[in-house]
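pipeline stage [seq->struct] | target=Cell division ATP-binding protein FtsE | organism=Jeotgalibacillus marinus | residues=228
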Amino acid sequence: MIQMKEVYKKYPNGIMAANGFDVCIKQGEFVYVVGPSGAGKSTFIKMMYREEKPTTGEILANGVDITRLKDKRVPYLRRNIGVVFQDFKLLNRLTVYENIAFALEVIEEQPTKIKKRVMEVLNLVGLKHKARMMPDELSGGEQQRISIARAIVNKPKVVIADEPTGNLDPETSWEIMTLFEEINAIGTTIVMATHNREIVNTIRQRVIAIENGVIVRDEQRGEYGYES
């Protein structure tokens, strides 16, 4: 699904955020990306959807080297990649329904298909009854559910989540993780950067640990491995 080959990323300030990443993530896997702050986790995540480009190396998505994609082709790449952020990034001027529908409108999907699919994902995240509400009328957990619904409305093959429970209380965090497990169970690949030790150690999945731009551990059913 996603493969990095000898990937290096050096920022203009001299920081080496990726120092020879070699990793393969298969279709349907659930992968945690862990490590200390500033270790290179966000760079790892952002390079997967071309928010950042490596200095050297190859990143393959479905066999296509996305580092060589022309900028105008990047939006097409992202149709198959859903992204969930810590701070939700919902459009406050749009309703819940409109936030999710927007992801389909930009690819010029038919209105009847948009309505059907939006209601499907709202039902999946348990917020069908809040379709006409505005984002600021929702709790943090509800906003994150809407963010997830928007990320999966295109039926992407992979969902990338960058600290998706970072702004949520523990109970809500577990609810969000249950939702990610359900999405993964239908075959969607999940790659999640997180600092949540309890979640990683309880819901055991593959763990990729990054320190100082180096992958120091890659374990199936791994542990968090750091003090939280």
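stage status: PASS
auto-comment: The chain has a mean pLDDT of 93. The chain is about 30% helix and 25% strand.
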